[in-house]
TrEMBL record:
InterPro entries: ADH-like_C, ADH-like_N, ER, GroES-like_sf, NAD(P)-bd_dom_sf, Zinc-ADH_QOR/CCCR
PANTHER family, per the entry: QUINONE OXIDOREDUCTASE (PTHR44154)
Keywords per UniProt: NADP
Coiled-coil regions listed: none
Superkingdom, natural source: Bacteria
Name of the protein: Zinc-binding dehydrogenase
Annotated signal peptide: none
Keyword Secreted tagged: no
A Pfam family the protein falls into: ADH_N
A GO term for molecular function: oxidoreductase activity
Ranges of residues in domain Enoyl reductase (ER): 13-351
Amino acid sequence: MAEAFRFRILAHGPAGSPVREAFTPAEPRPGWVRVALKAMALNRLDLWTTEGLPGLRLPLPLTPGCDGAGVIEALGEGTTLPPGVEPGGSVMLAPGFSCGVCPACLRGDDMLCPGYGILGHVRDGTAATHVLVPAANLLPIPGNWSFEQAAAFPLVFLTAWEMLVHKCALRPGETVLVWGGGSGVGSAAIQLVKALGATAIAVVGSEAKAMRCWELGAEHVIVRGELKALATRVRELTGKRGVDVVFEHTGAATWATSLSVCARGGRIVTCGATTGPETPFDLRALFAKQIQIRGSYMGRREHLWTLLSLILKNPTNPPFRPVIDQIFDLSEYPEAQRHLEAGSGFGKVVCRMS
Ligand SMILES: [Zn+2]
């Protein structure tokens, strides 16, 4: 058997600072399984977990990594597996954990559970050859998808689905401005907007990324330059009305523009703040235009099954699929973190277990 190893955040530090260590994977307890990982995908949360967040104490040392796919290697005693999942079979992982017994969990809002946490953020994650997860976090891998694709799927698609479908109740024919169209969550959002019969206007940082957004189904792509010019362009594209929904995850640098390009009665939904968390804005724009602001964090685990069923309707040509930017070997995980932080790629950064 190849050596089992994992990356650990020993103390908060810059991207790329987790260190490699050998370990002996534990036996799963009842209701849990051990997965031999074949691929993992990075998310912004890997960087925030590594760097540390003000006011948040994380249980260090910790293995980062929220997304993963692999093979079930061991089951805890009496563990029941979800439909379509078998011992020894291939699985992808739902990243969220919750208690399963509180009122929020019982109505399906697991991400509102007081005990909600994310793999690789509050417990050891997927930057490792092996991971322990509850059986309820397992999903079958659709059709002919590779482990790399499966690992790149859950977190960003669940996040984008929750934002568009549940937080914003996006309707066919509406228009959505997607900031950061080349990011993992942005590239998922563009595809979901199209699949839902709405129109995506994507914002990207370069011409090369613009081409990729067209291919994903964006109706219009704006290469980001001066924000005032961008706002003017959005108004042109929407007959001066503005967009019905702004898909925000960029934060401070874009927030004022998001308000400015949002239509009367429109919605701004946000799941992140990659350019900074604090920004002043004009409350008059908010109430005069009757804009609704909605915060979103991950999504209902149930909806990964919804997304899976949409894929399985046509597995060879699904309405959406993860976009992979670059594949590293797991031993290069720190380098993969630095690549993600640099922000030059398009889509998901993945590590493969060789
Ligand atoms: Zn709960």
